Every structure is written in C-alpha cells, then in structure tokens.
Amino acid sequence: MLAWQVTSPGPMASGPLRAVELPVPEPGPGQVRLKVAACGVCRTDLHLAEGDLTPRHPRTVPGHEVVGYVDALGPGIEPIGAPETLADRPVSAASPAPATAATPAISAAIQLGDRLGIAWLGGTDQTCAYCRRGAENLCPASIYTGWDVDGGYAQYAVVNAAYAYHLPAGYSDGELAPLLCAGIVGYRALSRAELPPDGRLGIYGFGASAHLAAQVAIAQGARVHVMTRSERARQLALDLGAASATGAYDAPPEPLDAAVLFAPVGDLVPVALEALDRGGTLSVAGIHLTDIPRLNYQRHLFQERSVRSTTANTRADGHEFLAVASRHHLEVTVTPYPLTSADRALTDLAGDRVDGAAVLFPDTM
Ligand SMILES: [Zn+2]
Ligand SMILES: [Zn+2]
What is the pLDDT of residues 115-174, one digit of tens each? Predict the structure, then answer.
C-alpha cells in the first residue's frame, strides 16, 4: 500500500515526509483494519513532520483523523469491549450481548464493512490512577495514533477496536474526518469552559476546531462572540450564527461567562481573562501555547475567574461529541487532497492556505 512516513523531521521545505510502499498491516489481537476512505490533516501532524513534536519511532505514518471501512478483524475481536466488563456480564444464548457496552467508552460491536473513525487516543492502560478515575486522557501510558503507532496517511490502518468510533450518518467520509480530532478536542475544551445554559461564550481563534465547537455551543443555546485576526474567519463565524466577530484582541460586546482560547497565542490569555464576567472560566484548547505574559491578580483572576488547560480527550468525550454531531448537523468545511499530495497539504497548512480542514483521500489518486 501507499503510505507516508516522517523520515527526517524538519521544515516542510526540507521534505520531512517520504511516500513509501508498505505491506498492508495485519490487525493484531483486539484490533480491526480499516480501508482508509479519508484522513484529516491536523496541525499536530505538522508539528510531528517539522520536529516540534519528537517522533516516538523512526518512520512514523502520521494521521489521526481517519475514516475508513472495516475490512479485517483481528483475533479475539468478538465481542468488542473491555474484557473485564464482558466477563462480568451474565451471558446466555437467549440474551446476546447488547449492542451497547456497559461504559460509554467502549464501542458497540464491530462488523466487517462498518464505517469507523480512528482518533488521536489509540490506547491506555486502564489501570493507572487517572484511568481509574475516568481521566484516561491523562494516562501516562497512552498510545497515540500517528505518533506511537502508524496512522491514516495510508491506504489501510489498524486500530484497537475499543478505541474506534462508530460515526454518525448524514456526513460524507471527508466531513467526518476533521470531527475526530478538531471536533472532539474542541468539544472537550468547550466542556471544560463550563459554559452555563444559554450563556455568553467567547471564542479566540477560529480554525478547524473552533468552527466546530462554536456550532455545538450555538446549537446548545449559547450566544457566541468570536475574536480572530482573519477577516474570512470572521465572516465564516457570522455565517455559522455567531452573535459577533471582531479582531483577535478586541473586547467582546458583552462580558463572557466562559471563553475558549483556540489560537496558540499566550498573549491572548490576559485579554480573554479580562473579558470574563465574575466566575467565568477560560479554557485553553491547544497542545502548544506561546508564553503567557505576567497576570495581574485583580484585573485577570479575582472574582473567581479561572484558566485551565485541555489535554487530549477521553473516549467518553468522543462518544458525546459524535452524538451531538448526530443530533445537530455541523457544517464542516473541507479542502480535499489526494493521498499522493499529503506533503502539499501539510505545506499549505504551514502556510495558512487551507480553508477549513485539509483532508486526504486515498481513492482519488
Ligand atoms: Zn489532531
Ligand atoms: Zn492509565
């Protein structure tokens, strides 16, 4: 199969990715193989290619927004679920295992031909203190798709079945791909902002993740104010139902109950904190943030304003977000590229030349 590997991390102009011919991977125990239909291009892939994110392995295949169709099941794949959960469940021939497992983190049973998604979180130990308290996003033994294990810049990919997602109907393969990282992580960042019902939400930065989170918030009754430097992004925000859209450092037209910072710009932290009403929360969505300038307690934090980070996501976040996306159709802007042009897609992303989300399509080569 065709796949892309990060062979020598460095600036995109230096050609850090190489297109190679690899054997089609075989699914191991508890895994399924997907024939990839679409794979989103995330900024994290760019960090990996350019060496900002240290590779965990040489020659990693990037890509963690993978949509595909199950074409092979690994050994022991039936039934899908956490072994301990299934062992505890009384089983009889008259009552087959329910399609939905006991915890929201476990995918329903998987069959050949199913359309599934593979996301960033590819595995956890389920035994550490964080996993046991429902914070598997913090698991120190996490396995990440397209970093620890090969991802979706390829014609086929394998995934631990318990970490794959069934995907909502009503979306094309390409529209679903960005939901799997930009969508889920943005949703967690939004959740961590603890926006009260019908509250006033500020969104700083308006890229792939923000434009999905904004639609979720609007669908849930929030009044959304978008602060971003790009005129095109401001227009998109208004088209999607934002109440206002202004420059990145502008004050919103009313105090905010909550805010999410999507731009990786630490200078915006005090700006956003100052825009919060009493008791408001600023949630920082990114994996990277430039340095935060000195804060002033009275101006930025007193009156119980708070700032918090977001780290990856749990499977429960993923299932919740995909359920929301199933109830409220989200507008997803996709810029398509053939899989053979993955390097061009990343170069365009580095140069801010991608509208919405870049998505690779293996079948349009
Ligand atoms: Zn990502
Ligand atoms: Zn753990």
Answer: 999 999 999 999 999 999 999 999 999 999 999 999 999 999 999 999 999 999 999 999
Measured in Å, residue 79 CA sits from the centre of ligand 1 at 29
d(CA 39, CA 157): 10
Task: Give residue 84's pLDDT band: very low, low, confident or very high (50, 70, 90).
Answer: very low
Å from CA of 46 to ligand 1 middle:
10
CA 324, 328, 334, 336 torsion-angle sign: positive
Measure 311 CA to ligand 2 centroid, in angstroms.
14
Write the CB contacts of 133 (distance below 8 Å, at least 6 apart in sequence): none
Q: Give the number of the ligand closest to the Cα of residue 141.
A: 2
Residue in the block written with tokens 């009754």: 221
For residue 262, report the distance from its CA to the centre of ligand 1, in Å.
13
pLDDT at 104: 38
Question: In whole angstroms, what is the distance from residue 225 CA to residue 227 CA?
Answer: 7
My answer on whether omega of the bond before 79 falls inside 30° of 0, hence cis, is yes
- List, in sequence order, every residue forming a beta bridge with 225; answer none if it has no partner: 202, 244
Model confidence, pTM: 0.88
Nearest residue to 87 via CA among 102, 75, 100 = 102
